[in-house]
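Lab meeting prep.
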Amino acid sequence: MSPYDLTGRRALVTGGAQGLGESYARALSAAGATVAIADLQDRGAEVASELGEGHHFVRLDVTDDSSWQAAIDSTVAALGGLDIVVNNAGLEITSLITDINPDDAKKMLNVNVLGTVLGLKHGLRAMRPGGPAEGGGTIINVASVAATIAFPGISVYSATKSAIDRLTRVAAMESGKLGYGVRVNCIFPGLVPNAMGAGLANDVSELGLFDSPDAAVAAVVELTPSGRLGEEKDITDALMFLASDESRFVNGAALQVDGGMGM
């Protein structure tokens, strides 16, 4: 049972069909919120169905402005409003700087940076006074510990996640100055041994940066004062705090959930 009460809240989670996004969606639902899973993967519909009656799946390309508008309209209609937006969708393509493929760099910039920009744009427009879900709310952007460390092989990804931190702070300031009533924060998850984390360990090993995937993981643990990798629940608990009223005076913040790796 969740320690947070989000009964009556309506949430949209991008990239909610798998990984941490799915964990966020399930945690929000367990706390009483109704959730729209926004994703390009059909599995998003399965997750929404598993969450139960009232939950919703909406197909969303986070890099497309019109797709965002349609997703917000669909979510507000299906859930009866919108109180929480989680900009979670992200893409990581590992490469040495000397071998970066411009197309891969553009993909990461589009999904990670533009996707967050558009999520902020449409989330704020929906929840501000006069919007279709007016009444305020909260937006949580998902950055990464990669924004705070110099880990080899993920230069562009790191840059995109650093951008999310800056976007968060400016959006929080604009929302406050203009009286939108929407708090904007972000979290910096540490490495989690899910499919994305395992893929990164394999990739940096194949690039010759570490002797093996296990050695790459050991290097991450060595850099982490808590002495272990993160678990999905570690990250999800932090997000739930930011989604709840317990964080009502937390705004424009970057919450590091990385066991101290990025301190």
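Slide two material, second protein:
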Amino acid sequence: MYLQGEFDFGIPEPPWRPKRPDRAFFGLFLQPRFHAPFADLQNQLCHRHGIVGKRLSVERFHLSLRHAGDYRRLRSKVVFAASRSGRHVQMPAFEVTFGHVGSFPGRPATRGRPPRHPFVLLADDGPVFELHKLLGVEMLKNGLKAPDHFVPHLTLAYDQKFVPRQPIEPITFVANDFILVHSLRGLTKYLFLDRWPLMEAS
């Protein structure tokens, strides 16, 4: 099953695109019922910490589970291997709770350009780590790389300011499925290639 869904946010193509513009990854996306509380929190936290840089639209809010690679052109064999990996993962639906906020190092200042720090919500321990592990096992079986490093987070914005990690009032969403995404880097566009439901918890 190929193209299942697409987000195109009406932003014209910029003059710069990376050498490997096609990215494939597995992610958890917020269902629409969670958009409003997360958007409200984004506004509150950006205002509180003086974040004035580019904010992500709430439709793009997601937690990346596994990176399947960056490519000059995403080939069908990679999509096949990733889809085969995803469909062999079975797990109950679960909650993801974010209890901290802070900045990642991101891109340093270079050639006169200011730094670009991702401003993110950081997830607490929970079943998301098990899903990450199960996906990694299947990806390795299907010839894909699956590094162990994992810091589950949801990016709110990008800014020059660096905010140290600190606690917030926890906010939660329910993960009912996970998605294989083709990200067109530089175009602010996601294509949903495949989707797998997580089983309802008994």
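Talking points for slide two:
Residues 5-10+24-197 form a domain with the Cyclic Phosphodiesterase; Chain: A, fold (CATH 3.90.1140.10).
The beta strands are 5-8, 22-29, 62-71, 94-103, 117-123, 153-159, 166-175, 177-184, 189-197.
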